[in-house]
Amino acid sequence: MSRENSLVSAQWVEEHLDDPKVVLVEVDEDTSAYDKGHIRGAIKLDWTSELQDQVRRDFLNKQQFEALLSSKGVGNDDTVILYGGNNNWFAAYAYWYFKLYGHQDVKLLDGGRKKWELDSRELTEETPDRAATTYTAQDQDKSIRAFRDEVVEAIGVKNIVDVRSPDEYAGRLLAPAHLPQEQAQRAGHVPTSVNVPWSKNANDDGTFKSDEALKALYDEVGFDNGKDTIALCRIGERSSLTWFVLHELLGQENVKNYDGSWTEYGSLVGVPVVLGDEPGEASA
Amino acid sequence: MCGATEGGLSLAGVDVAKEAIIQGQVVRGGDPVGGAYVRLLDRTGEFTAEVPTSATGHFRFFAGDGQWTLRTLAPKAEPVDRKVHAAVGSVAEVQIAL
Fold first, then answer.
1. Which of B22, B50, B67, B70 would you mutate first to test chain A, the one with the most A CBs within 10 A?
2. Which of A43, A93, A238, A261 has the most CB within a 10 Å radius?
3. For the segment A260-274, what is each residue's pLDDT rounded down to a tens digit?
4. pLDDT of B12
5. What pLDDT sits at residue B2?
6. Rounded CA separation A280/B83 (Å)
């Protein structure tokens, strides 16, 4: 993968606003942001009500995902451009989700909604009318999704990157201020996981840093490029963005997002947990 | 915005006793700036949250006890950093002039 295959600029989006094969999709942490204005032609995906199973803690299954995209008017051969606020935090989560179900042509708008707004580009409150499609999803690509047992087995073996804030990593906080809804039973981090806060991947305007700057970020914490990698955060969204950087921008192979993340790991009985700012030992 | 009052956002429905609220308004030449982005950075400079301002330029964070920095980005303006102290049970009102 590379930047050309996975990112588009605001200018590119503006030039393709009337392209019928390009579907813009807004996914925001603040699910009401779309209703206050969005890029012309964009549809909305609500991560809380539309991308999660409403009973079990899991994603939509294949049939549910197919039904969702069909009803939204997304076709299998459409170019899906995702964007959102907070450095594309939830848009990156949706990107990973689309890849999980095998959508071929999906990209992020570099800088997301913020870059679009800071450029003073047009927003509208008009909602588009897209005809329903018959969308066919692939089986989940488990090569990009990690489950809890793999994380325990990865301790001291794989790169584990914890992308929460330093205070969450160290166990001083269970959740970031302002967004404290979901919490684990215990604070701390997975032994041997390194801390690279997700926001360090982005510039102030929400665009991704250069490949060189991104590489340096992971080299600094002693990433071993020869090893497989698992990214986690609290609920799996921020780590989707890090997965995007490592797997899609930097082209690392075998990178998985652990969507159970700390709210699952930190609630498991009997697993090792480390407190403090250091990664800790495998035998902790 | 509904409920916006001069000098700050309405606190109707917010349990102030349990929250460390940072809120305020972004202005340019005395006029409110809607659609600006205000970012909440923790004491180490780490990103915590970001919200766009309302049509009346207002924003609000539910922070925690301690020192925070608000970084504001808006079209055609240089980023503005403002330090602010938050404490549970109080409302820190901040006016940010671009």
1. B50
2. A238
3. 999 999 999 999 999
4. 78
5. 39
6. 33
Chain A nearest C-alpha distance from B44 (Å): 9
Domains with residue ranges and CATH for chain B: 16-97 (2.60.40.10)
Asked if B76 and B46 touch (Cβ cutoff 8 Å), the reply is: no
Q: CA–CA separation, B72 vs A273, rounded Å?
A: 37
Taking contacts as CB-CB distances below 8 angstroms, the residues of chain A near B39 are: 204
* The amino acid at A159: N
3-class DSSP assignment, residue A142: helix
| Residue A150 located in a structural domain | yes
A233 carries an active-site annotation? yes
Those residues of chain A that have pLDDT short of 50 are none
Residue ending a domain, among A140, A163, A181, is: A140
For residue A16, give its domain range. Answer: 3-140
* Tens digit of each residue's pLDDT (9 = 90 or more) over B26-35: 999 989 998 8
pLDDT beyond 90 at B80: yes
For position B11, what pLDDT does the model report?
80
Minimal CA separation from A216 to chain B, in Å: 18
The tokens describing A180, both together, are 């404290």
- Whichever domain contains A42, its CATH number is 3.40.250.10
Q: Is A117 in Cβ contact with B71 (below 8 Å)? A: no
Question: Which one of A140, A163, A182 terminates a domain?
Answer: A140
Residue A280 lies in a domain: no
